[in-house]
Amino acid sequence: MKFNGTDSYVATADLNLAVNAAITLGRPLLIKGEPGTGKTMLAEEVAKSLDMPLFQWHVKSTTKANQGLYEYDAVSRLRDSQLGDERVHDIGNYILKGKLWEAFESEQRAVLLIDEIDKADIEFPNDLLQELDRMEFYVYETRQLIKARHRPVIIITSNNEKELPDAFLRRCFFHYIRFPEADTMAQIVDVHYPGIKQSLLKGALETFFGMRDVPGLKKKPSTSELLDWLKLLVAEEIPAEALHSKQPGKSIPPLHGALLKNEQDLGLFERLVGMTRRGR
Amino acid sequence: MLVDFFLQLKQAKVPVTVREYLSLLEALDKQVVWGSVEDFYYLARLCLVKDETHFDKFDRVFAQYFEGVTELGEELETRIPEEWLRKLSELVLSAEEKAEIEALGGFEKLMETLKQRLAEQKERHQGGSKWIGTGGRSPFGAYGYNPEGVRIGQEESRHRRAVKVWDKREFKNLDGAVELGTRNIKIALRRLRHFAREGAPEVLDMPGTIRATANNAGYLDLQLVPKLHNKIKVLLFFDVGGSMDEHIKICEELFSAARVEFKYLEYFYFHNFVYESVWRDNQRYRAERIDLWDVIHTYGPDYKLIFVGDAAMSPYEISMVGGSVEHMNDEAGHVWGQRLLEAYKDAIWLNPTPQGWWHFTQSVGMVRQIMGGRMFPLTLEGLEEGIRLLSKTSV
What we know:
The complex is a heterodimer of chains A (280) and B (395).
Chain A: H1 13-25, E1 29-33, H2 39-50, E2 54-58, H3 65-69, E3 70-72, H4 74-83, E4 95-97, H5 99-105, E5 111-115, H6 124-127, H7 129-134, E6 136-139, E7 144-147, E8 153-158, H8 166-170, E9 173-177, H9 182-192, H10 198-212, H11 223-236, H12 240-244, H13 263-277
Chain B: H1 3-11, H2 18-29, H3 37-48, H4 55-67, H5 82-92, H6 95-103, H7 106-126, H8 138-141, H9 147-154, H10 165-168, H11 183-190, E1 195-204, H12 206-215, E2 224-230, E3 233-239, H13 248-261, E4 264-270, E5 277-279, E6 289-291, H14 292-298, E7 303-308, H15 316-319, H16 333-343, E8 347-351, H17 362-370, E9 375-377, H18 380-392
Parallel strand pairs in B: 3-4, 3-7, 7-8, 8-9
Antiparallel strand pairs in B: 1-2, 5-6
Helix pairs in contact in B: 2-3, 11-13, 11-18
């Protein structure tokens, strides 16, 4: 069982190695990186290429760790007891399974994505230590021990909004997805838009990396923005010459609104282009 | 196995633990990688390093340990024994790389190119360009002598991989190098709290539920309230450079503690005194500046303002137009200081120099006057005092 990227996802050698190590040793893999470098996509692609079911747990600022294990719906039980419902005698009827439980229970080995773990409370990762380590947890209400049938492949993403606790980090493998280099980027684009003309692609990539080098941008354009922009270029049938004829940085590229998402950045970019044009 | 490597990492302050070391061994045992130094590098990093800010330190230790190259000074510029090189290359080069060298005309030819290259490099060096031994990179400066180093010069376009990944040190910029031991500061900062119920109702409101249930003739009527949150928001302004260099450690500690403690924390840098713009990235501070008006408009008056600086400068830098040491400021520093203080009522200035020295510097007195006396030494007591003041004035 080895992950080597897929038709729709280009994974670098080090990322492949990270995923395969996590699969072999059954450790959670913590993925960080610039926004838009395909952190969340990774889990989907791993599941697809290894033919495993995927469970996605999207973490929000209000998410609690036990919600991933199970929740005891005391309120419905209380209500049912007042209405004299028969179900009330079995507490198991009011235990709602979380994503972690589902992944543990899966018949075949599963991929579990814990997305944006840094969004949650600072204690959230600490509350999952035992569960991720031993891959088991205890349901107090029904006195059951839930144990993973097969250690799921756990992929955790973080956007670095909060520092994660050391104890949690010690139990994970850590991989930082770097922003792709021009070569890798060309591969990625090729995967998404196979028909795109070479010259258009070359021009577009030059413009794109030129734009990333513009100092002072609040949000640098990322891979997903590049792909959107290319889609627009193709849809509008912009000729390759429009990108090529002028030097990058000296003219405003067509449809650049797809790359810069912030009015201050747009303003700054246009000002800079204006300045270079006047030769200052 | 690899114990020395582990200890060296520890010495270089990469936070590694035995557990991580054991998981690396486990991975090796299960043959996740086999026979490639580069794969091993990735695997070791995957297992041992848990934060990209430590990648740079890891790369340095890795390079040092696995290349067998110690700190080579610039005096070793010429005349390296050929055997030594040959041995090194056998150690370092993988089978396919060796094959490639053969394709280039074998080792002898390569050595010749190497000599040329060395000569060329020496010239360049005399010309003032520091190709070897650039500051902080001295362990790697040695790469000019490595056969791989030769290949870089020779085949720049064809071989993107001529440099080993760990020698690229691409993560240099991210190294925060924050010391541990910030617990005391965290506890002091913890005093700055203002709890409020905000957001979605998710906690059972007991008294409310009892009241509502009673009103409902005994039928349960659940009442929920939002949870308590610390809603303190903080703006941190750090003085950097110049006389602040000696206080870097304490500032880093304060910064790392504050980052953990406050959910809403924004930080900016300035030099000596605030003028029309500040910045967030010290390496690009000339290019990426943030207008101070933008700061004032973006962050509302409920933010608490904390300056950290020694306030030691020429009095003109505060009082005069054009007084800044770095640029031509159209408005005097104290005008901008006042604007900030008007926008943020709750503000303190933390000064890392000992309180006993303050009266020796005129500018400290001026800053204290602008701050209305709210200057505290950056010691635990001073911090506590300052934080108490900030929390007293909380809205």
